[in-house]
Write a structure and sequence with these properties.
With 494 residues, the chain is α/β, with parallel strands linked by helices. The protein is 37% helix and 21% strand. Strand 3, helix 2 (58-71) and strand 4 form a beta-alpha-beta unit.
């Protein structure tokens, strides 16, 4: 097995700013061609499903990618605009050999990406990514084509109904007619799918950010906006008398919620709610949940209180999925669901047909839990965990100097036991999809979120200076209050 790491593939495909390498048409054609060649794996013919989110650059990139796939002899099924998990589900369901999604998820509109999915509906292995890159780096596409039969592109609009039917068939008899739900669709892929699903189950809907223009995806909208600025969705909840609100990200693989008081119900809460719901039905695989190291201690305490097992992974939904797959080898899967996810709202309910996070599917399961639990309030449903003080800071950087080489950062870390005596955990890393440094600090009940924010801000500035940011730009650092939602603003000055 090769130890070489991919150069262009990050934790969620090939991401970047459109018009800058590698997201330029010439390279994307070669990426499609090399993907087709690698995914054929000796077959004479393969079928690849391709979908995208609502970004205005999506059609251009999809056309370039499709040209390469056709040159490799692949039959391409064009799914159009569809959530990323919809492509993953359909690849598995329809027996295709691969799928591709043109999306940059929750990132800004000027960015986009190419995410490749294998025949099982999961992310590619590092070995396949390295081989795709090796072929795509060859100077001329004609060096790869050879004498082969070219593929054809087919309209896959009808496949979208198969995906919607699957979302609804999981909940036979579910009646949401007594609920009013506020939806924020991020002007992304959920914009038609989520309202259709909830309306078909009888819910009264009040919806915002469900009118994609190609330029407004994730623009002051969607799950990341609600995590930072919940006021708009909360206002909609109050005006409409909604029981709760749901916010999706651009490609609809994430969902977060707001309760009737306007408080954030994030991925940690969602995992706990679903764990309780599945436990009551004896459907939780291995009585185990899986979460990343960015989780809140409140989730760990919940696990202990319920007598469950807990598996922690590094950041990335693919690592959560890997652990859920491991669980299926230890416990019988019949009528069970593997449960895991990330704090940002990427929740995986793993079974034979679903192995990736799906925001719309998660939202339907949460709505079902709310109704079947006969919950008086959504805040009461989410009260199954009690969050400890926690912040996550995200700082823009020009490059990624090794964190251990930054002496100022190391000094701040050494001082933390004195400056924050109640500190429980710290996680420092670079984002795998954006040029961002992230600092997660979690304290004890003696700490305040504001104290954690001051320390996180110092760390961010130390990394930014090491990465070439000589002048302070307050807008280049965001401080998310994980415990309660919303942003924090440090009082420290340089």
């Amino acid at each position: 097995m090769s130890s070489k790491k991919p150069e262009y593939f990050g934790t969620d495909g090939v991401r970047g700013t459109v018009g800058k390498f590698p997201l330029v048409p010439d390279f994307v054609v070669r990426l499609g061609l090399s993907t087709g060649i690698v995914m054929k794996k000796g077959r004479s013919r393969i079928t690849i499903l391709v979908g995208r989110d609502t970004r205005h650059s999506g059609q251009m990139l999809q056309s370039a990618l499709t040209a390469g796939l056709l040159a490799a002899g692949a039959t391409v099924i064009d799914l159009g605009i569809i959530p990323t998990p919809g492509v993953a589900f359909l690849v598995n369901k329809m027996g295709a050999q691969a799928g591709v999604v043109i999306s940059a998820s929750h990132n800004p509109v000027e960015q986009n990406g190419v995410k490749i999915i294998n025949a099982a509906g999961s992310k590619l292995s590092a070995e396949d990514e390295v081989e795709i890159e090796r072929l795509a780096n060859q100077a001329q596409a004609e060096n790869l084509i050879g004498s082969i039969v070219f593929g054809r592109c087919l309209d896959g609009a009808g496949y979208r109904e198969i995906y919607i039917k699957d979302l609804l068939d999981e909940h036979p008899g579910l009646d949401l007619s007594k609920l009013t739900i506020a939806l924020d669709c991020a002007n992304g892929a959920a914009s038609s799918y989520a309202p259709q699903c909830f309306a078909s189950l009888g819910a009264r809907l009040v919806t915002i950010n469900a009118a994609p223009t190609g330029l407004n995806i994730n623009n002051q909208a969607g799950s990341e906006q609600v995590r930072k600025h919940p006021q708009e969705l909360f206002g909609l909840i109050k005006r409409s008398g909604a029981s709760f609100g749901i916010a999706f990200d651009g490609d609809a693989d994430r969902a977060v919620f707001l309760d009737e008081r306007g408080e954030l119900v994030d991925g940690d809460h969602t995992i706990a709610i679903l764990a309780d719901f599945l436990l009551r039905q004896d459907k939780l695989l291995g009585n185990t949940i899986v979460a990343t190291n960015m989780r809140n201690q409140g989730l760990v305490d919940f696990v202990k209180e319920r007598g469950l097992s807990f598996i922690e992974t590094k950041v990335g939904d693919k690592y959560v999925t890997e652990k859920l797959v491991d669980l299926t080898k230890m416990y019988p899967m019949e009528r069970k669901f593997g449960l895991g996810g990330e704090q940002a709202g990427h929740i995986i309910l793993y079974d034979a047909e679903h192995n990736t996070g799906d925001g719309v599917r998660t939202a339907l399961w949460i709505a079902r839990a709310f109704v079947e639990n006969q919950s008086v309030s959504f805040s009461g449903l989410a009260n199954c965990i009690r969050k400890t003080p926690q912040v996550i800071a995200s700082a823009h950087v020009h490059n990624r100097p090794p964190l251990e080489s930054i002496s100022e950062l190391e000094q701040i870390k050494r001082n933390l036991p004195h400056t924050l005596p109640g500190l429980q955990r710290i996680e420092l890393r670079y984002s795998g999809t954006e040029l961002l440094f992230r600092a997660m600090l979690e304290g004890g009940q003696a700490n305040t979120e504001q104290e954690l924010a001051e320390a996180a801000w110092q760390m961010c500035r130390a990394v930014q200076k090491a990465a070439g940011h000589t002048a302070q730009d307050p807008a280049s650092i965001e401080m998310l209050n994980v415990s309660r939602g919303g942003l924090l603003y440090p009082t420290l000055q340089e």
